[in-house]
Amino acid sequence: MKYFDVLMLNRQRLLWTIATRKQLERWEPIVAAGVQSGSARGELEPADIWSAEIERHFVLVAARNLLRALDLEPPSSVAINPVVRAELKEGRDLVEHWPDNLPVFNVHPRREEPLRRSGKDFAERNPRHGPYNWLSWSNVTGARVLPNVSAPALRELLDAVQAEVLASDPELARFVPPRAPSPWHHENGEWWPKQPQLDA
């Protein structure tokens, strides 16, 4: 009997889906509070700015583990936008290997080329943007985990994976926690914060 049988595949896929969603639920309210204040950094407490960086880092770690789980044999049938897939992989690598990449991507204009393929591919796709903006938002896309990965797009992927897993094994539904309320209003194709959701 192989270790990653259907039960274990479903377990790992759902586990990393939940982990990614929980990290988004921790990160997005900080972004919404920054938008609500009128300035991503201007009105936030310094500790909240660092919290945004920390929480987004772990969004990327969890999402990368989810991609690994989806790629195990037999691979998931959930369709993933190739740019979203590539950028999640690259983004995780770039935040993990920050000593090599911060000096490349946080200097504007860029003076150096990234050393590794993940950085080169990311830079080619994003000539004006780096992977280290943890308070990125647009009223068109909502909160942005990376330049081409919006939080709503990532949530759609998570919903699709969860639906696939629970269709295969409904018993796993008992491990799915309730979702936190969204910090966003989404109306007429635009995303706006409801109110700051930071802990007191």
Description:
54% of the residues lie in helices and 8% in strands. It is globular, with a radius of gyration of 17 Å. The chain has helices at residues 6-36, 46-71, 82-96, 98-105, 117-125, 151-168; strands spanning 137-138, 142-146, 149-150, 184-187, 190-193. It has one domain. A hairpin with a 2-residue loop joins strand 4 (184-187) and strand 5 (190-193). By secondary structure, it is mainly alpha-helical. Helix 1 packs antiparallel against helix 2, helix 3 (82-96) packs across helix 4 (98-105) and helix 3 (82-96) packs across helix 5 (117-125). The protein has a 3-stranded antiparallel β-sheet. A two-stranded antiparallel sheet has the order 4-5.
Number of helices: 6
How many domain modules? 1
The secondary structure category is mainly alpha
Please mark out the parts with pLDDT under 50 across 5 or more consecutive residues, or reply none.
Answer: none
What's the N-to-C terminus distance? Answer: 51 Å
Strand order in the largest sheet: 1-2-3
Mean pLDDT: 92
Number of strands: 5
Shape: globular
Query: Assembly state here?
Result: single chain
Largest sheet: 3 strands, antiparallel
Quote the beta fraction.
5-15%
Q: What is the radius of gyration? A: 17 Å
Helix fraction? 40-55%
**N-to-C SSE string, H for helix and E for strand:** HHHHHEEEHEE
Search tags:
mainly alpha; three-stranded antiparallel β-sheet
